[in-house]
Amino acid sequence: MEQRNNKLGWLFTSPYLIYSVVFFFVPLIWTFFLSITDWNMIKPKFNFVGISNFADALQSPNVHAAFWNTYRFMLIFVPLVTVLAIGVAVLVHGLSRFKGLFLIGFFLPYLSSGVVSALIVKGLLSYTSPINTALRGMGIDIDWLGTPFTALFIVGLILAWKFTGYYALIITSGLESIDKEVYEAAAIDGVKDGQRFWRITLPLLYPSLYTTLILAFGVTFGIFTEVYQLTGGGPGNATNTWQMEIFKQAFSNLQSGYASAVALLASVATFISIFIIRKLLEVWGKRNGWV
Amino acid sequence: MKKRNSALLMVTLSAVMLSACSTGQNTANDNSNAAAGGVTTIEFWAAPNPTQQAYWQEMAKAYEATNDKVKINVSAIKESPTSEASIQSAIAAKSAPTISENINRGFAAQLADSEALVPLDTISGFSDIVSARDMTKTLEPWKFADGHQYVLPIYSNPMLFGWRLDTLKELGYDAPPKTYSEVLEVTSKLKAKYGDKKYLWAKPDLADPTAWKRWFDFYMLYDAASGGNKFIEGSSFTGDEKAGTEVLSFVDDIRKEKGILSRQVTDPFETGTGIFTDIGPWTFSMWDQKYPNLKYNETYALSMPPVPDDVDPAQSKTFADTKGLVIYASATKAQQQAAVDFIKWVYSDAANDAKWFKDTNLPPARDDLSTNEAFKPILDASPQLKPYAENVPNAVPPMDNAKYNDLQTIIGVEAFNKVVKGEIAPADGWAAMKAALEKALK
């Protein structure tokens, strides 16, 4: 019986195991191997270069920029998308009809291509676009994609627009799961309307918020399409990201070994950052008695 | 049982990993399926655009009709994520073609550096192609630092500058200015008349450090100012400091006159926001469709790059936007020879180059483009192509250094982009760029 269960267990887990081996373990080990060589995938021979790719990457201004820009994007994107998603969720939750329709409407940007949205924004922010012409008429002349802060902000804004609907769905489901009786009981206990959100909704929404925050922080480590289309990582290195740097080194400079080292550094930075963020969120939740 | 399953899993994992760790290389002789039944099959990868693919398909079909011992499969290079990366992946996966076009000199240097290419001059019949096609002079600057020719240029666009002639006429000029001081004079008159409505050079790429963008601003001006100095030769920095500083000072002077707009603008030259820009012959078919109001020698004129005041404008050189054919080392000897024979057949008849020119607007890389009768009808029908044809021998191809992406990024990051934005003095920019280039070349 035990042996039969064991076989069945292997059978059911085999798709995941095979998937993990093919799409995770093999590429991971392959990346490790590449990162200690100077191979560009074309040369008939490769040289083992030890940790020199890592040492070069750690000294590269492009990699430094990618590292810090991730946190700059976090500072812009995470608060923006969280506030917007909560706002959308609260508004939609309060509707008596067509909740689903509105949620789908907000979710649509998530399904749209990052290339298309980036190109539309590029057109809107063109120097000769009606928006900029009107702004210049009012004496406001901003080089949106040519100034470090505005370029960062624009990319953060596009991402927030894209992900708001998705996170709003998660938060809405959290709101839906809060029992109305809790609010009724709180009202009897004298909780005022203005305190309801902070005292009841937010604590009970914590599990959904935790999920969306972790997802949102994770997004900032994978930014590529919008930056590639809008700024190419510029001006200077102001919007360079991990993915952008890996792409440039692997596919423009054809330095597969170096790009693999950058990819591994990015993985380590992502893992450590998300780990710390998770811990901080858990401490925050526990301190407030939400978990 | 558990142990057996674990062992099986480990063996499978190891096998998959070991197969992935293979360098994926094979020798020319391993590729044995090339010649079957006495017929040699070659794979030809054409540039990823329908016109060029159709041209090579037609050539292949015509050649097969004259030679039943060769079969040529023409397909387009995939562009995901880039055509260079597709070629790199194909070589790694042992599925490289026999021959491909659309290869620039810098990428060819990367491939040659990795022993992925055959030196064309070592294959019998190559010198016949060069003499029959009348391209000795055009081919000369393509020689690599090791003395070999790895690329046969197909076309060579001497990049020219376009001027909005309609605006120039409004400012009192009948022809484009040719020297730096003349250009600056036009800029100050333009700004006096139009203020922020028009700029001399409106182009977002001027502030963008992407490597290839320097071909169409810095290199065009630098080639003209330096008389075609190679800038980087092999792994040595050979830049002409006087010429380079003059180029950067010229750009800085235009900026000071508020003649540069490096902000995001759609089609600034076509809409008249800018009156000066680099133009390749591929532009004209787009203009025919989208901007039919632009007429050669009416609304726009073409010129070689402006030169410093102490340089003769008639001696102006420019950047050659040029790409060519390479033959891959992974092909068998028979395939390599068949590929050269095919190319020899194509270029033995100037009519084939004329067809290319007519179909693509891209000037064939020949010394006799402006004198050979075969091209006269095309140039007569499209006079805007004449200055391109005339300047093929005055065009300098890109560097042959495998690190060209890094090196050209340095030009932008350390000097050109900063000068455009007024962040560095021209001489300081040149010094910083030179130091960074020399460090990168070590």
From TrEMBL, chain A:
Q: How does the protein associate with the membrane?
A: Multi-pass membrane protein
Q: Which residues form the ABC transmembrane type-1 domain?
A: 67-277
- Which InterPro entries does the record match to this protein? ABC_transporter_permease, MetI-like, MetI-like_sf
| Annotated compartments | Cell membrane
UniProt keyword Transmembrane helix present: yes
Does the entry feature the keyword DNA damage, yes or no?
no
UniProt superkingdom: Bacteria
Indicate the transmembrane segments per the record. 16-36, 71-92, 101-125, 145-170, 204-224, 257-277
Tell me, what is an example of a GO biological process annotation in this record? Answer: transmembrane transport
Q: Which Pfam families match?
A: BPD_transp_1 (PF00528)
**Chief subcellular site?**
membrane
Q: Name one GO cellular component term.
A: plasma membrane
Keyword entries, A-Z:
Cell membrane, Membrane, Transmembrane, Transmembrane helix, Transport
Give the UniProt family note.
Belongs to the binding-protein-dependent transport system permease family.
* Protein name in UniProt: Sugar ABC transporter permease
TrEMBL record, chain B:
Q: Which UniProt keywords apply?
A: Signal
Residues of the signal sequence?
1-28
Note whether Acyltransferase occurs among the keywords: no
Cited Pfam families: SBP_bac_1 (PF01547)
- What SUPFAM superfamilies does its record include? Periplasmic binding protein-like II (SSF53850)
Protein name in the entry? Carbohydrate ABC transporter substrate-binding protein
